[in-house]
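TOPIC: backbone geometry
CONTENTS: sequence, structure tokens:
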Amino acid sequence: MSYITIMDIALARGVQKDPRGGYNSSEFKRVGLSIMGGCVRCQATLAAYNAYPGRCGYWLCKSCVGNDGFETVDQFERHTSEAEEQRKLEAFGFQEEEREWAQEWLEED
């Protein structure tokens, strides 16, 4: 199975090359990503081109990604959006069974 990398996400979010033709960390920061990181499972050092976002919320290397990756950028963005919504609900103290009501309440603000 082929999974997307952090680089794929950066390109989809509009990361631009610098005047020398490369990508830099400030441009990655602009699109809400890091250019360097590490695998949460084996601690391998990773760059955007060989880092796979995992469903666990952390970066994984090719050896560790297993079935935890995303096949498309859209799939990743949906998952990230849903996870962010869940964090908001938990921050306000809502439980899973209160989710629908809580989302309506948050949207009213």
Summary: The chain has four helices and four strands. The first helix runs from residue 6 to 12. The longest strand covers residues 36-38. The mean pLDDT is 88.
